[in-house]
Amino acid sequence: MKVTGGDQKVLPNPPEEPMLEGKEAIARGSKLFRDYKCVTCHKTKGFVPSSGPVLTKVGRKLTTEKMTTWIVNPKAIKPKTTMPAFAGPQRDLQYIVKYLETLR
Ligand code: HEC
What is the pTM of this model? Predict the structure, then answer.
C-alpha cells in the first residue's frame, strides 16, 4: 500500500521484524490504535467515546484507501480537522488499517 500527498510523516519500516498476518496483524492493529492515542478521540468496541467520530462501523463505511488517507493526512480530506496526522512506521499504519477494516 503506497500513500502519497500532503504533509505526511509515515516512516520506512524497521527491517528486523517481518509483517504479521491474519488475526495477529489485527490484534497488533488494535494495540497500536491505543498506543498511537487514536482512542483518545475515537470510540471503537471496548473504547470510550470522545471528540472524534465513532469508528465502530468504519470498515463498512470507508475504502482502505480513504481510511489510509484519513490517518496519514487528515487535512487532505478536511482542512480544518483537529485530527493529527499519523507519525510512525508504514507497518504500524498497515496494522491499524487492517484492524479498522474489521470494524463492521
Ligand atoms: C485529536 C483527536 C483525534 C485523534 C488523536 C485521532 N483522530 Fe481520527 N478523527 C478525528 C476527527 C475530529 C475526525 C473527523 C474529521 C473532523 O470532523 O475533523 C477524525 C476522522 C477519522 C477517520 C474518518 C472517519 C469517518 O467516519 O469518515 C478515521 C478512519 C480516523 N479518524 C482514524 C484515526 C486513527 C487510526 C487515529 C490514530 C492513528 C486517529 N484517527 C487519531 C479526531 C482524531
Answer: 0.80
Q: Whose CA is nearest to atom 5 of ligand 1?
A: 38
Which atom belonging to ligand 1 lies closest to the Cα atom of 80? 18
Write the CATH number for 94.
2.60.40.420
Our mutation pick for probing the ligand 1 site, out of 42, 91, 102, counting the most ligand atoms within 8 A of Cβ, is 42
Grid cell of 70 as nine digits: 484519513
CB atoms within 10 A of CB 34: 13
pLDDT in tens, 4-45: 556 678 888 877 888 899 999 999 999 999 899 888 887 776
The one-letter amino acid at 55:
L
Range of the domain at 61: 19-101
